[in-house]
Amino acid sequence: MTHHYGHFIVDILSRLWPLAGRVAGPVWLVCEPATGRAYWERYPFLGEMLAGLGLTVDVVVSFEEPVVLPRAMIPEPSFRSLHSVHGVFGELCQAVGRRYWSEAEVDTVKTPVYLSKSRLSTGIQRLVNEADLVDELARLGVDILFPEELTFAEQVRQFAQRRVVMGINGSAFHTAPFSARGRRTIALSGMLHLHANHIMFDAINDNRSYYYFTPGTTSFAEAGFDVGWLIPDPRRVAAQMVARAENIDRIELYDAAVEAEAARQGRSIAGRLRRLRRALTTRWSRG
Q1: Per residue in 51-60, is it b (16+ CB within 10 Å) or e — as a string?
Q2: Contact (Cβ atoms closer than 8 angstroms) between residue 166 and residue 111
Q3: Sign of torsion over alpha carbons 215, 217, 218, 221
Q4: What is the C-alpha to C-alpha distance for residues 199 and 180, in angstroms, rounded to an integer?
Q5: Closest alpha carbon to 102 in 162, 180, 50
Q6: Beta-bridge partners for 222
Q7: Cβ atoms of 203 and 234 closer than 8 Å
Q8: Cα(87)–Cα(108) distance, rounded to whole angstroms?
Q9: What is the pTM of this model?
Q10: How far from each other are the two terminal CA atoms of the chain, in whole angstroms?
Q11: Integer angstrom CA distances of residue 272 from 15, 251, 279
Q12: Helix, strand, or coil here: 189?
């Protein structure tokens, strides 16, 4: 058992795929180590996910002494981190989240939402100057939400309702497969390479996800987190994220145009520098 949101989905929930319409009759979930009701109440999303499968926390049992079980099933995980994902994992996520959203509300909110991690005190990664990014995004009209302050059901509904969801690349985006298919997301990454799990989460839900790394990003050890990172010019990054949200249906063409313009400007600057160097060399030779 783990109460980390992303690891619970990948390592624990992924073993419950037989409960997505494949097992009939009473079910007990044997958990190790012992947790108890107080544990589940401290992390409400655990109970909400079980509720999506028609179960309550009362079906979770632990044993403190040897017990003979007449029949036990130990399912293989349907999601293997960094390795593979099975279609049944997508079916499981849909079964869990289906009660929390409706087809009628899909893509009804045009204003982009940004899922912020700026209020977390511990975690895997932290964008140190995220508050500056969030302030500028809010000024540009983006709604700011903090996943840890929302119930699981509210997060699932946000993914269904919002036409575009933005944020820091991480576990918050693991909610998408529990919602409507084909979600559009824009994520900012602190690393130049992309964690394979995100690709697999996108694949099982047919998401249209776009990941961006800001040149000049620096990373370092950060208290309470595995790593901290810093982006240059958060206001400019915010404007770029909003521009891409506005062009989400043609984002590949938009990115190509931006890159072409950057290359053109780079050539122009390089040309000016060459002319300047020639001028300086001429002046020096005349000196």
Answers
A1: bbbebebeeb
A2: no
A3: negative
A4: 17
A5: 180
A6: 225
A7: no
A8: 28
A9: 0.88
A10: 77
A11: 61, 31, 10
A12: strand
Please name every residue paired with 60 in a beta bridge, in sequence order, or none if there are none. 29
Q: Which long-range contacts (CB under 8 A, 24 or more apart) does 254-259 make?
A: none
Exposure on the CB side of residue 24, measured as CA atoms within 13 A: 0
List, in sequence order, the alpha helices (H) in 122-249: 130-139, 152-161, 196-205, 234-246
Which phi and psi angles does 213 have, rounded to 5°?
Answer: -115, 130
| pLDDT (tens place) for every residue of the chain, 287 residues total | 888 899 999 999 999 999 987 777 788 999 887 778 888 888 999 999 999 998 988 899 888 889 999 989 999 999 999 899 999 999 999 999 999 999 999 999 999 999 999 998 888 889 999 999 999 999 999 999 999 999 999 999 999 999 999 999 999 999 999 999 999 999 999 988 888 999 999 999 999 999 999 999 999 888 889 899 999 999 999 999 999 999 999 999 999 998 888 888 877 766 666 665 665 544 444 44
Q: Is the dihedral of CA 100, 102, 107, 108 positive or negative?
A: negative
Residue ranges of domains in the chain, CATH in brackets = 5-100 (no CATH), 104-246 (3.40.50)
